[in-house]
Amino acid sequence: MHVIVCGKVIPDPNVVTLEIDSSTKRMVRKDQPHVLDPAAASAVEEALRLTEEHGGSVTLVCMGIADAKDGVRRALAMGASAAIHLIDDAFAGSDTLGTAKALASAIKQEDYDLVICGTESSDSYSGIVPVQLAYLLGIPAVTFANKVAVEGDTLHVERQSETGFAKVTAELPALVSVTSGINEPRYPQLKGIMAARKIEIKTYSAGDLGLGAADVGASAARERVLTVGAPPQRGGGRVVQDEGDGGKQIADLLAELKVI
Amino acid sequence: MPERIWVYAEVIDDHVTPTTLELLTKAAAVGVAEAILLGSAPADAIQILGDYGATRVYRGDDSVFDDFLTLPAVEAVSSLLAAEKPDVMLFPSSYAGRDLASGLSAKFDCGAITDVGDFRLEGGSVVATIPALGGSYQTTATLENNGVRLLLVRPKSFEPRQTGGTAEVVTVAAPTDEGLKKVRVVERVTVPVEGPQLEGAKNIVSGGRGLKSAESFQMLRELADLIGGAVGATRAVVDQSWVPYSMQIGQTGKTVTPEVYIACGISGAIQHLAGMKSSKTIIAVNTDPEAPIFKVADLGIVGDVFQVVPQLIDEIKKRKGLA
Ligand SMILES: Cc1cc2nc3c(=O)[nH]c(=O)nc-3n(C[C@H](O)[C@H](O)[C@H](O)COP(=O)(O)OP(=O)(O)OC[C@H]3O[C@@H](n4cnc5c(N)ncnc54)[C@H](O)[C@@H]3O)c2cc1C
Ligand SMILES: Nc1ncnc2c1ncn2[C@@H]1O[C@H](COP(=O)(O)O)[C@@H](O)[C@H]1O
Questions:
Q1: Is B267 helix (H, G, I), strand (E, B) or coil?
Q2: Could you identify the atom of ligand 2 that is nearest to the CA of residue A116?
Q3: What residues contact residue A3 under an 8 Å CB cut-off, 6+ apart?
């Protein structure tokens, strides 16, 4: 079984506060420590779990800047056997659909049985790339999976719902997006880290995939950011040192809000 | 001509969801509201949709919409969109809403805006407001395409209002293509929740690792009872098994929008903020003045939860005449 994992590499949320460049209106990504998105780590873990059970291999596909390399290596160190890095200035500023088109073009070069995504990336949270990608690949998608199993050609998923979960099935090839509660991603071992160094990461530019300015990048984006700024209702908050009356101050506010 | 605004109407647990009614109210306020209702629904669903502003309901009641995820709905809605050409279509940010909007955005090559908190129409285009990045920025965005604008809207973004209107019904034929029956729903399992529910709770008291132990959650329960609320927690605390997963708030837990959210010993990691940043009033108690939770707090107390919370409990009891 060949499992493709789509995963992002993001500015390390434990080190940097996410920032938006006010002129480009995009997230600041350059020159920041980058890590494999925890959502991607869960997807890699699930792929490894399935291929350990059924045999096969895992390929990570990541669209990102040069700083993404370390994160890609981490997925390899976890146990993925190949990685494809979509790297090109032409991808910068892609919206979700542009991202999905780039990922789909790369995945179409492969023979695969299953595509695993995170439900949402940990820096942009849109959560719509996976189903867009499945549509472009012409395969069914199951999102928000809490449990994934493969039996023959059938994918079995327990999918989160508002009231609990639903048991669903789909025929392979298919795409599934996994929640981060689905597993505990493994830590790479020294052996894996050494082995990962020897793996050559395949790279594609937009041109390699036959994609142009009408397909990917800022020029192709349907979604256009107009302004970024501080939210009006937050930020005007009051932060005070407790001088022994902190509880009373909260009670005053609760009374003002008619909660008590 | 007023804009036609469609709303994907959702039924969960045999009820039209509150978010559906919120979206209809907003749609009716800025244009002509129409709803699409697919799959099984309670007998009074169309009446309710009309009452909240839908002038027309496109109704497809075939079981194919219940038995197979996403693809039949994408097919039915895309045929309707192609024929009727509404200006905007709104979806609740829910499991089904998100999948449907994603599929349509790829099919029509039209994109979609997610996590929308509000929107307005401006000379034929749509300007959406997105409370982005854990509430630390607010973004406005538009969709540049010539077709329908798809917006995924957060729950509780608008106040639902009854209009007393009625809706005309247009029957939607079920798509017959066998190729759409790819993701089969075998069983729907309802997991019962214990204690006061976080969803819909008017007030929430939430605890993080700063509480140090499972026992100190008792203090939060007492506070929650006093203000008529439920207790929530961070993932760090759930991972320690201090409280069950059903209490987790955040990106991988529940999304809540109470009137008042009191964060006790919570750092305010972006994944936690994702689940509570839309609360009306946020109060935070934390010993670390640099804790990111203070960036979203209306009132932040830099102090020890073991001092501040007991004092708050005493103070409320006093004011309520309980002590
Ligand atoms: C993919 C992913 C998904 C995630 N999903 C979620 C999610 O859904 N929900 C979630 O909550 N987290 C989630 N997390 C985890 C998140 O990143 C944080 O680790 C977590 O929210 C931290 O919880 P905390 O605030 O309780 O703990 P900490 O970050 O350890 O903060 C404890 C705080 O308590 C304060 N404190 C200590 N003692 C006291 C005292 N006596 N009085 C007052 N304050 C005190 C400290 O100053 C500190 O700020 C997720 C992470 C990832 C990677
Ligand atoms: N640049 C990217 N490279 C690889 N996978 C991605 C990328 N962007 C999004 N994805 C996949 O889509 C999922 C959802 O992302 P998003 O729609 O950004 O929330 C992620 O968890 C990934 O699996």
A1: coil
A2: 23
A3: A47, A50, A51, A56, A57, A58, A59, A112, A113, A114, A115, A116
CATH no. for B4-180: 3.40.50.620
Helix axes of A190-198 and A69-78: crossing angle, nearest 10 degrees: 120
pTM of the predicted structure, to 2 decimals: 0.82
Cα–Cα dist A104/A106, whole Å: 5
Residue in chain A closest to B261 (alpha carbons) equals: A254
pLDDT tens string B4-62: 999 999 999 899 999 999 999 999 999 999 999 999 999 999 999 999 999 999 999 99
- The complex's ipTM works out to 0.83
CATH 3.40.50.1220 at B203-319, yes or no: yes
Exposure b/e, A65-78, CB count within 10 A at least 16 = b: bebbbebbbbbbbb
Nearest CA, atom 26, ligand 1: B208
Low-confidence ranges of chain B (pLDDT < 50): 133-134
| Residue ranges per structural domain of chain B | 4-180, 203-319
Residue to mutate (ligand 1; options B198, B251, B261, B290; most atoms within 8 A of CB) = B251
B294 CA distance to ligand 2 centroid (A)? Answer: 30
Ligand nearest to the CA of B305: 1
Q: Quick check: do B4-180 and B203-319 share a fold?
A: yes
Tell me if chain A has a CB within 8 Å of the CB of B187.
yes
Q: What pLDDT, in 10s, does the model give residues B64-82?
A: 999 999 999 999 999 999 9
